[in-house]
Design a protein that fits this description.
This protein is mainly α. It has one domain (5-125). 76% of the residues lie in helices and 0% in strands.
Length: 126
């Protein structure tokens, strides 16, 4: 297994940004919107960093995964699993459903699809 250092480096940078947003940013734009867009891109960079083989519809799969987690919030999955006192799990999974989050995941998916097309075109011209 060969790792892609560029993607893993990007993952760690995005992880640090997400942690900073979670701990220190309490606004009405960056935390709820940019943070949700970045989380899908964060997962993308992790997977691309660890898995050498190209996964054809990876951005779409991540959108489905993120949306599934969001729908689980609608059904109060954290409370159903009796994990509401676990701050880490509650933060990672989330506790409140918001359709705007799914829109943010879709925006991230479009960004990633565009990114893949750009990378593919640059690779093809080399």
């Amino acid at each position: 297994m060969r790792i892609n250092r560029k993607y893993l480096f990007s993952f760690f940078i995005l992880l640090m940004i997400e942690i900073i947003i979670a701990l220190f940013v309490h606004d009405t734009f960056i935390r709820p919107y940019i943070g949700d867009v970045l989380v899908v891109i964060l997962l993308y960079t992790l997977i691309r960093g660890l898995i050498q083989k190209t996964i054809k519809f990876l951005p779409v799969y991540l959108f489905i995964f993120a949306s599934t987690v969001e729908f689980a919030q609608y059904y109060h999955i954290v409370k159903s699993l009796n994990l509401e006192n676990n701050k880490v799990i509650s933060t990672i999974i989330g506790t409140s459903y918001d359709i705007k989050d799914i829109i943010n995941y879709l925006i991230a998916t479009v960004i990633l699809i565009m990114w893949e097309k750009i990378v593919k075109n640059v690779t093809r011209t080399k």
